[in-house]
Amino acid sequence: MSKISKERWKVWGNVFDEFTFRTLFKLASQGHFETLESPVSVGKESNVFSAKKKDGKIIVKIYRLETCDFNRMYDYIKYDPRYIDLKKQKRKIVFAWTQREYRNLIKARNASVNVPKPIAFLNNVLCLEFIGDKEVAPKLKDKIPGNGKKFFDTVIKNMQKLYKSGLVHADLSQFNILNYNDEPVFIDFSQCTPIENPRADEFLQRDVKNICNFFRKIGLKINEEKVLKKVKKRND
Length: 236
Fold this sequence. Notes:
Blueprint lengths: L2 H7 L8 H12 L5 E8 L3 E8 L2 E8 L6 H8 L12 H21 L7 E5 L2 E5 L18 H17 L2 E2 L8 E4 L2 E4 L6 E2 L5 H18 L6 H9 L4
Antiparallel strand pairs: 1-2, 2-3, 3-5, 4-5, 6-9, 7-8
């Protein structure tokens, strides 16, 4: 990286722990982005930033190493056959959580679910496609779609595709769907779980309930039971 880039990186020197800073710098050195631009969201589990690169922007999601709810993470991941041998150690859980989101996004995209393209991951940092124009696309909770019925139907189709691929989002709501040009884009896939998880049906029912409740509030008449059956109809 150039001296200019290194100088710009110093701005973030007191924001992250040294390990995370080195991870970010390595991903930047690999050419995934040049420098972090601005915070998109700050949460208990992760911080999300936009980042600049020569041909545009990407999203950089950084999972916290010290303040994550490791017990909650482990409860989601312990039934995932891909991580059956994962030990209950904080740092390993966070690293697996990051990798899991990357892998889930790849599987979702392969099933034609509308999600951001995963670009790269390392340790506790995940690089994703930037969804939006100059600014990140708003979440569904912040931008009601112009055609609520069409948007709802597209959400359900994407849920169905995800289920058919063998996954349940497990945290789907108006907080984890972007509204980009009146089209839904599902985000936040770290807790997404295989349908083999004994709690998968419980998670799916919760996802359906969250979605139905939101669209009822904006005026749609919805039969939750029928929606659930439609999502689970894997031969459609």
